[in-house]
Design goal:
- By secondary structure, the chain is mainly beta.
- It has one domain.
- The protein contains 1 helix and 12 strands, in the order ββββββββββαββ.
- The chain has a 4-stranded antiparallel sheet, with no helix packed on it. A 3-stranded antiparallel sheet has the order 2-1-7, with no helix packed on it. Strands 8-9-10 form a 3-stranded antiparallel sheet, with no helix packed on it.
- A hairpin with a 7-residue loop joins strand 11 and strand 12.
- It is globular, with a radius of gyration of 17 Å.
- Belongs to the glycosyl hydrolase 63 family.
- Its EC number is 3.2.1.106.
- Its main location: endoplasmic reticulum.
- It is found in: Endoplasmic reticulum membrane.
Length: about 190
């Protein structure tokens, strides 16, 4: 799934009536093999797209793309995207790091799927031109149910991370601490 945070705004996980998100919904969806949705949140346009390629013993391969754009003029605020993977107690997950820092993939196993890998490609600009600069961190934690994921991420947010793209000023951004859990949970 996906959570997002515009700096100076609220951590978002879902779009519900009366939560301040101006518009959200599926633009296209065939119920099985592809879908495109848009979320508009305080000048941010998030577009998520998925496509499924059938095959194999467990339903096929899925690809998912997230595009973030600011509407209007002016400098774009920093945006944190939080992609999450959870097994809901039905399997195991292991982070796969590139250069010891960038979360390149999550490897896992589940009874229904067997062994699987989710791969995170570096971000690119419009039209696929070169990678965009991004900073990465990840959180590995247990949570007593998927309904508590937003609370877990909110509790783990740290503004101590620094975004420093080449040739640009350093700026602080919110990231998650490397490990952790909910207060009062083992």
């Amino acid at each position: 799934g996906l959570m997002w945070l515009q700096h100076g705004g609220n951590l978002r996980h879902t779009s519900e009536p009366n939560d301040g998100v101006s518009r959200y919904g599926w633009l296209m969806h065939d119920g099985e093999n592809f879908g495109v949705q848009e979320i508009r949140d305080e000048g941010l346009l998030l577009r998520t797209e998925f496509v499924k390629q059938p095959g194999g013993e467990h339903g096929g391969d899925w690809s998912w793309r997230v595009t973030a754009k600011m509407e209007g003029k002016g400098p774009a605020p920093l945006l944190s995207l939080f992609f999450y993977v959870a097994t809901d107690g039905q399997g195991t997950l292991r982070p796969v790091l590139e250069n010891g820092t960038r979360l390149a993939a999550v490897a896992g196993t589940a009874e229904e799927l067997g062994d699987f890998t989710l791969t995170f490609l570096p971000p690119t600009g419009e039209g696929g031109e070169g990678p965009k600069y991004a900073s990465y961190n990840f959180l590995a934690a247990g949570v007593p149910g998927l309904h508590r994921l937003t609370e877990l991420v909110r509790h783990s947010l740290r503004e101590s991370s620094v975004f420093s793209p080449p040739g640009r000023p350093r700026r602080r951004f919110f990231g998650v601490s490397g490990t952790g859990g909910l207060p009062g949970e083992p």
